[in-house]
Amino acid sequence: MRVGLRVGIGAALCLALALLSGCGANEADVDELSQAFESPGRKSGSPKTDERLRLRALEVLGASARSTSPDIRAAAADGLGASRSKSAGELAAQLLSDPSASVRASAAAAIALTKPGGAAKSLLGMLSDPDERVGDAASWALTMVPSARVTAELRRIALGPGGSRQRQRAALLLGRMKSKGSETLLARLTASDDAAIAAAAAAALGYLGDGRGTASLSRFADAGFPVGVRLIAAEGFSRVGSPVAVVELRKMLSDDPSPRVRAAAASGLGIAGAEGSVWQLLHGMSDSSVRVRIAAAEALGRLGDERAIKVLRKNLMKGPAWAKARAARALGSFKADAARDALAAAARSPDGLVAVHALGSLTRMGESGSAGRLRRLLSSPDSSLRTEAATILGGAGSDDDTTVLAKLLDDPKSHVRVAAAVAVMKLIDPGRLAASGKKARSRPLRWAH
After folding, report:
1. Helix 148-159 to helix 119-126 angle, to the nearest 10 degrees?
2. Domain boundary at 179, 202, 219, which?
3. What is the largest CA-CA distance in the chain?
4. How deeply is 167 buried, as exposed, middle or buried, from its count of CB atoms within 10 A (0-12, 13-18, 19+)?
5. What three-state secondary structure class fits 446?
6. Cα torsion angle, 444, 104, 138, 238, sign
7. Which residues are CB-contacts of 193 (< 8 A; sequence separation ≥ 6)?
8. Distances in whole angstroms, Cα of residue 269 to Cα of each of 233, 266, 274
9. 72 shares its domain with 191
């Protein structure tokens, strides 16, 4: 499994959906690669060259969408979404019925960004998907295509008579989309016999600044309710942000038996800006679960508490792949010298995954030389490192990087090709092509056989 193929989904989604085994590149390897591969860079973007690269990347994505690997198909869907091309969106729409949940989730995000015909209708239908990842992706995607018609349909779904999961997601979306005028409907749903629907309605009221849902959320924070219901309660409390909500989040962080709920509570305290909760978050950084420790450190980072740096550094150097990626990104949010020093040390790690993510954060921070070192890793003999470097450059690089990324569009490894194609689509802005007088073409795409 490869984190590089998936770490860039609108995030949104967020997060890491696949893992990459560590690889062994040390500082000497990087220096040797520096001499063997120097990127010429581009003084300025050429619209004609950009268009050619964009179309080539689309060809790679179209072929990758037919891969037998779900990870490759999901990554291809991400890239199709990044293209903002209607024809690419039509291709991504064909992946909505893919047997893999991760592919369907990526396809949902892609059609929200490309907006092919019938996008909203397709996404509304996905709210009933039994897989949590797909339902969450469709929910996020619907926030990207707001309209009076979508709001009306969400209200209709929330009231029933559909399935519990679909109604729950619709109710919560009315809050996330700040649907004014839905308060009365949501208040009525908080009395539902279905705990998930009632909790979602209460959380939605929190998004809308309506305090009527707080009492219901407190009830659903009890460990006797399913984990999914308690997660909704934590989300609702983070949006209410009242003293009562903060107290409930603290209790969930310290007492809930589920690491997922404790992590959500820690994140909620950060979102709520609960500065008086620093002690609880410091305690959370010693939790038995790495998921909770990372979430608590990220929340402290939101609150500007630099004591999180030590825990993030530890999880960057030792832990599962997704934790290393999150720790590196979180360290990059600090302006303190201690965070830069931690990342600089990690960039020299013999663990290639640690090094590449540290370089990515240093690049985002504008650290001199880090982008060049990251770019040179695109020629690493390790295909996993090439994939990671391409993925990170897609989010942290500049359009100067498209020239070196273009070389990977013909890489012998399919996961490297698709990572490079996704990065190229993210870095080349079709709007800039149009502004330069070279309109980005949107020719029909077909499945590659």
Report:
1. 20
2. 219
3. 67
4. buried
5. coil
6. negative
7. none
8. 13, 5, 5
9. no
Assess whether 337 and 294 both reside in one domain: no
Residues 390 and 432 in one domain: yes
**By the 8 A CB rule, do 238 and 271 touch?**
yes
pLDDT confidence of residue 431? 54
| Burial classification of residue 259, based on how many CB atoms lie within 10 Å of its CB (0-12 exposed, 13-18 middle, 19 or more buried) | middle
pLDDT single digits (tens) 313-343: 888 887 777 888 888 888 888 878 889 999 9
CATH number of the CATH domain containing 297:
1.25.10.10
Q: Mention every residue, 6+ apart, whose C-beta is less than 8 A from residue 385.
A: 23, 25, 352, 356, 377
Counts of helices then strands in the chain (DSSP H, E): 26, 0
Q: Does 271 share its domain with 382? A: no
- What amino acid occupies position 229? V
Domain boundary among 193, 219, 245: 219
| Cβ atoms within 10 Å, residue 212 | 16
Q: How far apart are CA 273 and CA 191, in angstroms?
A: 29
Count of domains forming the chain: 3
Task: Tell me, yes or no, whether 118 lies in a domain.
Answer: no
**DSSP reduced 3-state for 11:** strand
Packing angle, helices 119-126 and 86-93, rounded to 10:
30
Residue 110 in domain: no
* CA distance linking residue 439 with residue 436, whole number of Å: 8
How far apart CA 24 and CA 359 sit, in angstroms, is: 15
Q: Which domain holds residue 160?
A: 127-219
Q: Tell me the per-residue pLDDT of 394-419, one tens digit each, with 9 for 90 and over.
A: 988 887 788 899 999 999 999 999 99
Same domain, residue pair 291 and 336: no
Give the Cα separation of 341 and 120 in Å (integer). 46
